[in-house]
Amino acid sequence: MDGVEVVRLEVGGLNSIAHLLPKTRGRCGVYELTFADGQRYVGQAVDVVTRFCAHRRTWSDIVEIAFQRVNRSQLDEAERDQIRRREAAGVQLRNVVHTAGRLGASELDVLLPPAEQRRWLIDHKPQIVRLGSRPHDPVLHHRGRYRFTRLTADPRFTDELARLVGTYLRATIPVPELTELSYWTISALPATNAATYPRLLTVSVHALETLYVYHDRHTPQDLRLCMNIDRAAARSHLRTRLGLAWMNTVEARYRIRPGVLGLHFTSIRSGHDALTHPGIINAARRLNLDLMRKGPALNWKTHCPDLVERVLSI
Fold it and tell me: Across the strands, what pairs with 273?
């Protein structure tokens, strides 16, 4: 991290840097930790003093912190820029995810330790889901029962479609039974885009639809499937290893998370085929984990526990 506005502090042996960065001068910005082994960690914080204390509890070998004040509205952009610079220079980062997102300490780390996140991210195998360990919320069960009943009565909701959604959850969501409701949700017949492209069902992580089944309002019999994935992680695989005859790719523009590529399929079988490709699974995992690290599920009130049970039991 370079520039005249960068503050560099030697912090070996310090548990706090509150005395070195007065609150009156501003503590919001991006930072870079340097460790004794030469590795780095780039992050963002509204209060870097508080964030440093959290990092110190995790790592005792932090020897330096570089800090640059940034307006709160520009944190994501500044953090991504610093990470890209480090990657281009070949610097080894300790960040769990290294593309296109908020990569600092996360509440998710309490539920799922960073080491487990790293192991899951580099794996491609579907997980075994322990249905008995899922969260139980009687109010949500009651609230979602009507839409679930309507969905299961719809002839378009086939066993093949249910299996695809279950495959997606096992392949692209870390420990689904542990992170369900808090970090990801599934909705039956949500109201999203009802006037143009109604949804049959939607899987959402944080505030973004990551998998949804939809149709044109004028042709409800022609179901389509969209799977959102990390664009940077997918680019090389999509160009060199996959035939694109059975899907269309669209560069999606979401304010909550730049760098998303939408894969649109015209058949459920095509979606199943996509989930057999390690490159697509990896790109979906990167997006989903990054979204979870940004924050918890925002649309949990529309979560349908019965639908989760259905797609993971078939």
Answer: none
- Categorize the per-residue pLDDT at 37 as very low, low, confident or very high, splitting at 50, 70 and 90: confident
Tell me the C-alpha distance between 150 and 269, whole Å.
24
Tell me the domain boundaries of the chain.
Answer: 6-95, 131-313
Residue whose entry in the numeric block shows the structure tokens 């960065």:
21
Count other Cβ atoms within 10 Å, centred on residue 254: 13
For the stretch 229-244, pLDDT in tens is 998 888 756 554 555 4
User: Kind and range of the H or E element at 45?
Assistant: strand 40-45
Distances 143 to 77, 140, 147, 263, 298 between C-alpha atoms, Å: 39, 5, 8, 31, 17
Rounding to the nearest 10 degrees, give the CA dihedral for residues 187, 288, 162, 192: 30
Q: What pLDDT, on the 0 to 100 scale, is given for residue 4? A: 58
Nearest to 117 by CA among 288, 234, 296: 288
SS3 288: helix
